[in-house]
What we know:
- The complex is a heterodimer.
- Chain A has 1 helix and no strands.
- By secondary structure, chain A is mostly helical.
- Chain B has a domain at about 55-180 and about 215-244.
- Chain B has 6 helices and no strands.
- The interface of A and B includes residues 6 and 24 of A.
Amino acid sequence: MPDLGKYADTVLSAYAASLLLLALLLVVTLWRGAWVRSELKSVEKRIRGNG
Amino acid sequence: MSIWEYANPKKFLHTSERVLPSLWVVSAVLILGGLIWGFFFTPDDYRQGSTVKIIYLHVPAALMAINAWFMMLLASLIWVIRRHHVSALAAKAAAPVGIIMTLIALITGAIWGQPMWGTWWAWDPRLTSFLVLFLFYLGYIALWEAIDNPDTAADLTSILCLVGSVFAVLSRYAVNFWNQGLHQGASLSLDKEENVADVFAFPLYTCMAGFILFFIALVLYRTGTEIRARRMKALIARERMSDA
């Protein structure tokens, strides 16, 4: 860990906030993608089943 | 081969699924590599101390906040002129990525500003135009959600995107337009005298490249999701009509 001196809180909070937002964006993106994919599959299956 | 082939949703999905794994990996390597390089292996600045390390997040996020809007503008213009649904959905998919980038730029700027300028916020031209850009992103996302008909939503959001572009340009050039305010000029310049020192610039370039590829990967993936969601809506509507 580098010595961040008197600005340690400043630097670490900037990194924490940014990485948290990036991770949140990635997780929400992947989660919604997987949900839509599985819902579409089940709708297609139902429609095929109904003939 | 023409770029308009990708207006076909099937072709778009097929190609994006082929390139996405490499894009995720390369963007992760560049972002993590650049941040580790910048955080652990660069010296403190003689004036800013260790707060200079915030540049590796602030500048790439600000870069993508502005360029995401320009990408949305281009996609919106393609929708307005050629009526390709994939381009309208790509603009919609990019907005949440753009707003997060704008938020990161605003938050890291405020955190850095507190010890350096003595204030979290100032009504400086660049900060203010960035805040307005953030509000435009919010409005753009809200407008998509508020309108049921996807074509009408795409038309109206395209107009909003065109108007918001003024603020995207202002966010980029506000420092040059008005020689006032707290925000310093561009950190990166082709002029060696004005550019940040190489020791800071190289990890910064790495992070910027990573953010650009991360943005492309997110937009490709999210556009694929929007295409599938649109197809699902159409299938459900057709099913309801045949049941009625």
